[in-house]
Amino acid sequence: MLLVTLEQREQLFRNNLDRDGDHFPVVKLFTPWASARWLITDMDRGDEDLLFGLCDLGLGSPELGYVLLSDLEELRGPGGLRVERDLHFTAKFPLSAYTIAARAHQQIITSEVIVGGFAK
Predict the structure, then answer these.
(1) Dihedral sign, CA of 85, 30, 52, 26?
(2) Where are the alpha helices (DSSP H) in the chain?
(3) How far apart are the C-alpha atoms of 60 and 69, rounded to whole Å?
(4) In angstroms, how far is CA 11 from the centroid of its own chain?
(5) What is the mean pLDDT of each run of 10 residues along the chain (120 residues)?
(6) CA–CA separation, 18 vs 51, rounded Å?
(7) Rg (the chain; Cα; Å)
(8) 1 burial via Cβ count (<10 Å: 0-12, 13-18, 19+)
């Protein structure tokens, strides 16, 4: 499975053009064997390996930052499990709301009810 589809890449590129924007996450990635999650908002057209978003390694301290797509593609869990794209995720709020909710709950939260309480 592609972690980022061509359509999603185009939106990630557009978001990258406005780095000061509070974009809605385009892609949610996760490890099915652990608690790691990523809400990705943009991709650098000059370096398509470089993603930006809310990163949570499942250690209780989610943070905004960069991650390499190649690192996520190469990551393997028990039995060869791979990082997956959440096929059912559609962002309802900008990244700032997910970030505030994640910091309050010490993990990425995607519940509309919870995240909506932190939206401006």
Answers:
(1) positive
(2) 6-17, 69-74, 95-105, 112-116
(3) 22
(4) 13
(5) 95 95 98 97 95 97 97 97 97 98 96 90
(6) 14
(7) 14
(8) exposed
